[in-house]
Each structure stands twice: as structure tokens, then as C-alpha cells.
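Subject: Sanity check before I submit

Could someone independently write out the C-alpha cells for this chain? I want to compare against mine line by line before I put it in a report. The sequence has 236 residues.
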Amino acid sequence: MEGFSYNNIFETKGIEYLIIIGFLLLIIPFWIFLNRHADLKIKLKKAIGTLSDSLLRIPEGIFHSKGHTWAHMQKSGMALVGLDDFLVHITGELRVNSLKNPGEYLRKGEIMAEVVQNGKTLKIISPVSGSVISSNSMLNENPGILNEDPYGDGWVYSVKPTDWKNDTSSCFLAGEAVTWSEKELVRFKDFMAESVRKYNPGTTTLILQDGGEICDQPLSELTDEIWQDFQKSFLN
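---
Independent answer below. Compare away.
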């Protein structure tokens, strides 16, 4: 055809272009394969979750006790008490057995409830003293509400406090609660390292993720012996 000229690419630098194209055809699928695995790893990490201070919910205006319970005074003068987010994240989904009935008196430091998971139990200590007004029936109907909203719909008791000022003087509030929770996470990492080596060294990979972070709900994978050690170290 007039006006057109043709060159044989093999007589110029066309062979180099073919080599480059062939290399790209090989490397692109490999690159996609690697990125798919990287994306999968990120998704798995998000699904598993890691327990860090940024993950914990610590609302202001709520008193946090050293036994990992909380108390909050309502406008009515009644106080709600429950389990803190640290304990919920450590254990996973729990069934709460209330040990007090409406009209009974609850003393600070007294066992107010038991939480149960697959036959393993923890005893929960009351952060305040007062007369029990009601227990949260929704925890029986929907145990997952404790994990979803531990400071709201996941409350355990409503009580009429009798010594609120003194009872809450040893609790943590706002910024103090954040600092204390961060220290508790560090202490829990040390506890896990010691307990896992002591009782069940084969589960270490279930407890720690890359970077030494604790996976979410680590106690759910562990034995009753470790639960009892956790009770003594963190809840009593």
C-alpha cells in the first residue's frame, strides 16, 4: 500500500520489546498473586483482631474498679454496674449468672455474679454497695449484648448505692481509667506469657499475632487452670 512502509521487528530492536513483553506477562500474574495473599493476610488479621489499648472502649463519666467492673450513677440516683470492656475482650462471649435478686443487699468486694464460658467460670466482684433494684434480664435472652455494648445495654445490675463517694474513691475515671487500662494490658501480656508456658506451651501461636500483640478473646482458647490464675491476678 502506498504511503506505508514496513520494518521487520526482528531486524531492529523488536526482539528486545518481545523479551520485555514476555517478562511482564510472567511478572504481572505473580504480582497479583502476592497482593492477593497480602490482602488476605490483612483481612484475616482484621477478622481475628488484636487486643490493644486503642481497641478498648473506655467511656468518660464511668467509674472503673480494679476488679474490672464499672459503676455509673444515673440521674435517678440509681447506679448501673457491669463488666468492663477489658474483661469482655479477654474472655469472649460469656453467659452471666446473677447471684443477687431484687431487694437483696450487695456489698462492695462481694461476689455479685459469675460468668461462664464452656464450663469455665470467673467470679465477678461488686464495685459498690447498695440495694439491688433489678438485674438485666436481656443478658439471659441475648448474651452477645455484653460484648456489643458492655457499658450500655450490657449492664448487670441496677442498685441504689449506700456509700457511693467512698466506694468510688478507689476507682478510675476518665484519663486515669485509660492509663490504668494500658498498664493492665501490659500486665496481661506478661501473665499470658507465664501462664501459657506453665500450662499449655503449644497454644502460643493462638495467643500472639505478628508484633507480639495479643489476639482478641485469648482466654477463650485456654484451660480452666489459666482462667483461675486470671481470677486471682486480675479480679480478686
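---
OP: Matches mine. For the report I'm noting this point. The longest helix spans residues 14-48.
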